[in-house]
Amino acid sequence: MSEFLQFLLTGITTGAIYGLIALGFNVLYNATDLINFAQGEFVMLGGLGFYTLGVVLGWPLGLSFAAAVAAVSLLGLLLERVALRPVKKPEPLPLIIITVGASIFLRGVAMRLWGKDPYSVPGLTASAEPVKVFGAAVMPQSLWIVGIVVAFMVGLHLFGKRTLTGKAMEACAIHRNAAWILGIPSDRMVLLAFAFSAGLGAVGGVIIAPITMCSYDMGTMLGLKGFCAAMLGGLGSHWGAAVGGVLLGVLESLAVGYFSSGIKDAVAFLVLLGILFVRPAGLLGASAVKRF
Amino acid sequence: MSSRARLYSTGIFALGIVAVGLGVSNPYEQQLLTIIGIHTLLALGLNMLMGYAGQISLGHAAFFGLGAYGTGIFTTHFQWSPWASLPVVLVTSCLVGYAIGRPILRLSGYYLAMGTLGLGIIAHVIFREWDTFTGGASGLVGIPPLVVGRLVLGLGRTGFFAVWATVVLFFVLCGRLVDSRIGRALRALGDSPGAAAASGIHTAHLKAVIFSFSAVMAALAGYLYAHLLGFISPSSFDFLMSIRMVTMVVIGGMASIWGSLLGASVITLLPEWLHVFSDYEMMAYGLILMVVMIFLPQGLTRGVLDAFQRARTLRGAASS
Description:
The structure holds two protein chains of two kinds. Chain A is about 75% helix and about 0% strand. By secondary structure, chain A is an all-alpha fold. In chain A, strands 1-2 form a two-stranded antiparallel sheet. Residues about 285-290 of chain A have low confidence and may be disordered. Chain B has a single domain, classed as ABC transporter involved in vitamin B12 uptake, BtuC (Orthogonal Bundle), CATH 1.10.3470. Chain B is built from 14 helices and four strands. Chain B has helices at about 5-25, 25-50, 60-75, 80-105, 110-130, 130-135, 155-180, 180-190, 195-200, 205-230, 240-250, 255-275, 275-295, 300-320; strands at about 140, 145-150, 150-155, 230. In chain B, strands 1-4 form a two-stranded antiparallel ribbon. In chain B, strands 2-3 form a two-stranded antiparallel sheet. In chain B, a hairpin with a 2-residue loop joins strand 2 (about 145-150) and strand 3 (about 150-155). The longest helix of chain B is centred in the C-terminal third of the chain and has 27 residues, at about 205-230. The relative contact order of chain B is 0.17. The mean pLDDT of chain B is about 90. Chains A and B meet through helix 4, helix 9 and helix 11 of A and helix 5, helix 11 and helix 13 of B.
């Protein structure tokens, strides 16, 4: 029983991060109908940036957290301006190839800057003593992760419902041209969505780094799992992202615990393929996702 | 291209290959040219899917690996002759391609890209983890070479001719295919799936057929690769390989048969010419993909040709 609980808790921890990455996908999808294949690279850059600022340069952890996230958000803006805005005919095939290209490019840059070795990053609290919960050990970092993810979920929800900018963004998500006619600067909202989405990815990278180590090639897998979580919960649904992320994390953790660690990465994709075929709107998605 | 022009150009191409094959005696260059041939097969197959039918696959290395591991397992674990495993590998990849293609190509756009990417990752996990058969991460060694009579096909001149004969065969085959009824149906599908369906094209079946066709070509390339090298490892069939294939198509140009040759040559030769290239390989692929797609969404050769054509028409219009 305590073994099961241990797997469950581990699953929830990684699942929360998948949920956060999924949230990044959703923010961008809602504003632009775009799936950014470079999302995982933002996660990786968040983690490695945090390592450089916090460990190599010795900045205070809170400050390096904020700086890493801000820098990656700026990179998200840059991606939109440089690579996606100039596209004349925004059809899926070129856009997919461009964001895949961006992802490979960022990965190559990170490999040059940080090398191929994985780095270990300290947790957000100094103590490494695990907390005991019903016989299962919980690392303090896991508590941080769940707390931060919940805070971002609630924060984003409030931002969307309570602030003018948030409401303007929602309007853009519903109908971009209609929002533009009503005087909402929809171009700026798209930029904001890119910055948010990249920033959310970077937060995911900073908080996952202490438990998985971080390296230049961690992004692809995390990005894909984030997408998987987003699809599982229903693309575009914020709470769906959280549910999808946790569900995926737990499934993965159980598969690793009871079968073998080799199939860990395959689980996410079997789930993804299953959901794409059977219920592309996701578990919580209200509207049918266009897939034809 | 008219069928006569295609016949002549293929004939000249075949003569050129014979000349190169007899002229080049440096083993390193022969080896390089053989690899270019294998990559051309991969690019041509993927181009049929991406360029003509307008469907993306980010996991085509799976079928390249299926061909290589399929024949590798039959010939090393079960001591089959390579010639016996050839039809089995081709038929299997054809069936697997259709069986996977039929459901996965119901998806389109981003979902198809993610779905095929997932497929590639699962295949890579299988190649790496199923170590009783695939040899795991360290790979599969001792794959026997192809033997014709008393001639052993290796990476040198013999392999060169075997691979490039296959390439010429598929150039002819694909050229005939795109000029046929199926080819027109494919282009209609690529331009507008709805309109194609309305004109009586069974789009779901056709998409799966072309996916299966490109899977067979990738598997054949994998078969040749395995028997010529004698050794395969999972790292040759990973996500980066799938990206390499997409980059070849993008450089060569969508819906361009000869472009596949160019794309494959560039991607194979770049790391050889620039020795520092391996450090910058991913950056270079990323930049190529982004820049070409932003400015020339039809791919490099098609885009340049189109721009040339436009300039000529403009000049023609101005002078008349």
